[in-house]
Amino acid sequence: MLVKVEGHRWAIEDSFETAKNELGLDHNETRSWHGWHRHVSLVMLAFAMMAAIRHRTNITTPPKTMRRMKNAARRR
User: Fold this and answer.
1) What is the CA radius of gyration of the chain?
2) 51-67: buried (b, 16+ CB within 10 Å) or exposed (e) per residue?
3) What Å distances lie between residue 19 and 4, 7, 41, 54, CA to CA?
4) In whole angstroms, what is the distance from residue 24 CA to residue 73 CA?
5) Integer Cα distance of 43 and 24 in angstroms
6) CA distance linking residue 9 with residue 6, whole number of Å
7) Are 17 and 43 in contact (CB under 8 A)?
8) In whole angstroms, what is the distance from residue 23 CA to residue 47 CA?
9) What pLDDT digit, counting tens, does each position of 14-61 carry?
10) CA 37 – CA 31 distance, rounded (Å)
11) Staple partner for 36: which of 18, 30, 54, 58, CB 3.0–4.6 Å?
12) Contact between 41 and 49 (Cβ < 8 Å)
C-alpha cells in the first residue's frame, strides 16, 4: 500500500513540474488569496485540457474494415 501511494506521489510531482514549466504555474505575484486562487485554477484548467488533448492524439486509430472503407469511398 505504501509503495502504491509513493508511486502516485511521483506522478503528481511530475504533473506539477510540467505545469510550472509549460503553463507558468509559478509565474504569479499575487497579493491576495483570490488572485492566487484564480491563477492556479486557470493553470490547472489549462493543464487538464492539455492532458486531454495529448491523450486523444496518442490513441491509435482502429484498423480499417471493409465496411469503413466502402463508406469512405461513398463520401468522396
Assistant:
1) 20
2) eeeeeeeeeeeeeeeee
3) 23, 19, 12, 14
4) 46
5) 7
6) 5
7) no
8) 7
9) 888 888 888 888 887 778 989 888 888 998 899 999 889 988 888 877
10) 11
11) 30
12) no
